[in-house]
Amino acid sequence: MSELSAVQRAFSRAAGRYRAAAGLQRVVSDRLLDLLPDVEAQRILDLGCGIGFASGALAARHPDAQVIAADFSPGMLGAHEAASSCLRVCADAHCLPFADAGLDLVFSSLMLQWCDLPRALSESARALRPDGVVCFSTVLNGSLREIDAAFAAVDQHRHTVAFTEEGRLREVLASAGLRVDCIERATRVEHFADARSLLQSIRDIGASRVPVDGRRALLGRVALLRVYDHLESLRTELGIPLSYELVWVVARKPGLKVESKQ
Questions:
Q1: For the domain bounded by 3-252, which CATH number is listed?
Q2: Alpha-carbon span 186 to 13, nearest angstrom
Q3: How many CB atoms lie within 10 A of CB 177?
Q4: CB under 8 Å to 232, separation ≥6 — which residues?
Q5: Consecutive 10-residue runs of the chain (262 residues): their mean pLDDT?
Q6: What are the angstrom distances between the C-alpha of 230 and each of 154, 158, 211, 227?
Q7: Mean pLDDT over each residue of the chain, to the nearest integer
């Protein structure tokens, strides 16, 4: 099974649990909606829509526009909250099934960290009309650092995605031909009653199957208990912390230059 298929299956399996588990995802999506600029839009893409936290709000804000809810997980699309007001499309962010310059707005919340970022942003830029806007949130390097540290005590393999740096993100945006209008950053710390529920929270949002240096790392009971012990050692009065470095970006595809007449 390919890595893409494995991740797709993981998100589909998580669809039924996602609504209850995805508190952070909803908060981040709501903030991205707050940052949306006023833009005339006839075709809007909610890319990596999940179960549709933002799709209904996008449709309400642009009642005359066609909102396309796209996700590569059939399970997520099947659980979509705003299915009646949107066109649902099973699609890969790396190869969008849309014509060049056919979209006015691309919205994507907490999905691009699972992608090849240069490919995904270049594809969004291709599908945007000149002066079209892409608004997205993602996570940066330093996210899930507690999990990284806990697993580093038992082996030398990655157990989380290698998240990008803000500087690299800016480089990728420029390479895709997108001009940044604004970038906002924040650190968010979730707290859990115990180590098991912390790790389960990652599984419940579909993020448990990630590449581990080309293989799946299977831990024995002793190693897993060492991971639990390390996470437990981080406990505060609020619980065991799990950190996210979040970024919200609004960027624009430059418009066509009009030659002035002499």
A1: 3.40.50.150
A2: 30
A3: 14
A4: 194, 195, 240
A5: 47 44 80 94 94 89 94 83 81 95 96 93 97 96 91 76 92 97 96 90 58 45 88 96 96 72 48
A6: 10, 16, 22, 5
A7: 84
